[in-house]
Write a structure and sequence with these properties.
single chain; mainly alpha; MetI-like fold; 2 domains; two-stranded antiparallel ribbon; globular
């Protein structure tokens, strides 16, 4: 009869603490690992449970919400609020309009960020210190809300889509992140491209950008999420209801205003159903406004991992 050979497993201090038979693939849980799993689970629940609560509130009746009976499961289940949202053309149009503004803003912002970060990494750029100082100056000093409003008014941008796009298009903080990432790319790659006859623009497109996909994806998400969640610029510069982004309508809904959606204007459903949904409409609007970002985020999440591990120079 063949004896099974046992192997000692050592801890970090090289002290044996358990015998393992080869072929036994069962995981060994140490007390530290158990504590770590519990901590991560608690943190995950802290982030997830409020969102589940909002979903439950959006699918519950007004009376159940007023009685504080809703926790993490809908009470007196109803989809009236979502039916009202999707039947309301103003809200649906605002959703697509906000997507349009976010996409245009993000594309222009990334172009400006890249075109400013790349030259500032070059020592041969004359006045590089001065331009870097101008960029940093804007992080600490601002003209204020009133001067910015007057400036936008004089430019004729009030009640236009460009009032939500042009101001704040370049983030100094994101530019510094991109500049720091460009600085980690070996100069030998640029020298090789220069020997092959490439100019600065070709080097940027063919060398720097392909090696910076992780940073570009991360900053793109920063710009997109920032613009998607913003409503103060629309609150200041937009009076036309048709040009109000979704987050501003959500702001009005949370504040109890009827600008986001008027239940009496719902095309379908009775007045009683509309009144019952009035209390939970703000929760449904939150879910309605959050879903696009939740759908996009998983596709760029892997770039965050790449951004952490990138940095080694391969021969």
């Amino acid at each position: 009869m063949k004896r099974e050979k046992k192997v000692l497993v050592y801890d970090v201090n090289h002290n044996p603490f358990k015998e393992v038979v080869p072929g036994d693939h069962r995981s060994i849980w140490t007390p530290g690992q158990v504590i770590l799993v519990i901590v991560v689970l608690l943190i995950s629940l802290t982030c997830l449970l409020p969102f589940i609560n909002i979903i439950a509130l959006s699918l519950s009746s007004k009376s159940a919400i007023l009685r504080s009976e809703v926790t993490f499961w809908p009470v007196e289940f109803t989809t009236a609020t979502y039916e009202m949202l999707f039947n309301n053309k103003d809200m649906v149009n605002s959703l697509f309009y906000t997507i349009e503004v976010t996409v245009i803003y993000t594309v222009f912002a990334m172009i400006l960020t890249i075109l400013m970060a790349y030259p500032l990494t070059k020592k041969r750029l004359k006045g590089r210190t001065f331009f870097s100082f101008l960029a940093l100056f804007t992080m600490y000093f601002s003209g204020g809300t009133i001067p910015i409003y007057l400036n936008i008014k004089e430019l004729g941008l009030l009640n236009t889509m460009w009032a939500l796009i042009l101001p704040g298009m370049l983030s100094t903080y994101n530019m510094i992140i991109m500049k720091s990432f460009f600085a980690t790319i070996p100069e030998s790659l640029e020298e090789a491209a220069t020997i092959d006859g490439a100019n600065d623009f070709q080097i940027l497109i063919r060398v720097y950008l392909p090696l910076s996909l992780a940073s570009i994806a991360t900053l793109t998400l920063f710009y997109a999420v920032g613009k998607w969640n913003s409503f103060q610029d629309a609150l200041y510069y937009i009076n036309d209801r048709n040009l109000q982004p979704l987050q501003l309508k959500l702001y009005y809904a949370i504040k109890g205003a009827q600008n986001a959606i008027d239940p009496s204007e719902a095309a379908a459903g009775s007045t009683t159903a509309a009144n019952d949904a009035a209390e939970s409409i703000k929760y449904a609007t939150i879910i309605f406004a959050t879903l696009p970002i939740l759908v996009v985020y998983p596709f760029v999440q892997r770039y965050f991992v790449s951004g952490v591990t990138i940095g080694a120079v391969k021969g």
